Amino acid sequence: MKRQRRRKRKRPAGKQPSTRPASVFINCPFDNEYLPLFDAIVFAVTCCGFIPRSALESGDVAELRIHRILRAMFASKYSIHELSRSHGEGDQNFARFNMPLELGMAMARRFETLENHDWLVLVPQGHTHQKFISDLSGYDPKGHDGSLEDIVRKVMAWLVTRPDATLSFTPVEVLAQLPAFQEGVKELRADWGDDLPWAYLVAAAKNVAEQLLA
Amino acid sequence: MPEVFISYPHQEKEKAEMLASTFESRGLAPWLAHRDISHSTKWQDQIRHKLDSCDAFVLLVEPTTKPSSWLQLEYTAALESVWKHDEKLLIPVLTGKGEPPAFLRHFNVLRIPSNRKDWHAFSERVADTIKEQRKTASPTHVPSDLKREWMSRLHDVASSALRIQAEDILEGAKHYLAASDPDNRGAQDLLSARYQNLTQGTKTRRTQRRSSKKQTTSK
User: Fold this and answer.
1) What is the pLDDT of residue B201?
2) Chain A residues 78-117 with a CB less than 8 Å from chain B
3) Quick one: closest CA in A to B104, which residue?
4) Domain architecture of chain A: domains with CATH
5) Could you read off the pLDDT of B92-147 as tens digits, one per residue?
6) Cβ B157–A63 below 8 Å, yes or no?
């Protein structure tokens, strides 16, 4: 009997396969100065239909922090790396090396495991990054001016042009909902402090993001 | 003379050239990477410079093909630029059958005619739109199936975050137990089993959802 080849059902042209949303690992400073930008990135990622992840999602557990970061990073299809803290800080004028270190992990994920991983690098506006991280030339790091508007625009323009984006909104629409998210997060932080469970933060972003279609 | 950046996949070079020649005859300055890149400086830098400085973007998009990483970079830059500068235009042109990608939802998408003899008239229309700085009305209506898909995706985002958190707590507990009470195999096994249940449970729910979806579509 002639073996029948199973015909693949053809997906309507241009329609993306319906899959679980991809994760985006956010690698940025966790301090009060950066916090509003960090919240804006988490919200923008959720509004673009992706799962935000970060080193903060793991509480104070016995596993080494770097292992937890690696686990989250390697489970994410995308990552966002903030390298704008390139200057020395504090009494001893130390630079922050955690963010470049984690960018290196993302690169290892792509080039060593040959898995599909893509990243967005955020740097200070201008050309200073060509001096402090010149090896990145060719990877199109995005300079930003430190404002919420600029960072949301940059993150969204990158995320919505990924092949697995489903429905996109404009930064104007997302920024209009951002204060509601900030308000919700403020209340959560008042209740939980530094122990705010990551899933609660994402749930707050999701609840506000639902209003985008209202 | 308004500068127009034409982004195109390699296989649509001919259509891009046709648009460019019409644009030139209509007093526009089109820029095509394969034609206008000079050998004196890095080609990547030249493209980046043009993406920053042009007045309008025409994106030739093949809906059924996954764009190259370089095309994705052009889409990102074009989108960011028109979001930032109100006066800049972005005109998406689909070169084949199929739905436009998600990021073009806010633009009035044009479709290149399948009949070659209509190409010229079509490119004249695009040129006129650019010359008149005419922003085409953006579609605001979101189809209900897309709305449903979006809401379900948001739900997936939140539930995935919960699952990740639960997995993380168990993983942390396993490590803690292994370090503090290494001989307690029973407790370690229990945690491992819970961890497996959690990940398998997610898979089962996903399979169930998929099969119920199949049933719905077959009805």
Assistant:
1) 52
2) none
3) A168
4) 20-213 (3.40.50.10140)
5) 999 988 889 989 988 889 999 988 899 999 999 999 989 887 665 555 677 788 88
6) no
DSSP per residue, chain B: --EEEEE--GGGHHHHHHHHHHHHHTT-EEE-HHHH--SSS-HHHHHHHHHHH-SEEEEEE-TTSPPPHHHHHHHHHHHHHHHH-TT-EEEEEE-SSSPPPGGGTTS--EE--SSGGGHHHHHHHHHHHHHTT-PPPPP----HHHHHHHHHHHHHHHHHHHHHHHHHHHHHHHHHHHHH-TT-HHHHHHHHHHHHHHHHHHHHHHHHHHHHHHHHHH-
Angle between helices B144-180 and A65-74 (to 10 degrees): 150
Of B76, B98, B153, nearest to A166 by CB-CB distance is B153
Taking only the tens place, the pLDDT of each residue in B23-39 is 999 999 999 988 877 77
The pTM assigned to this predicted structure is 0.84
ipTM: 0.82
Nearest chain A Cα to B160, which residue? A51
Q: Which two tokens stand for residue B188?
A: 């370690």
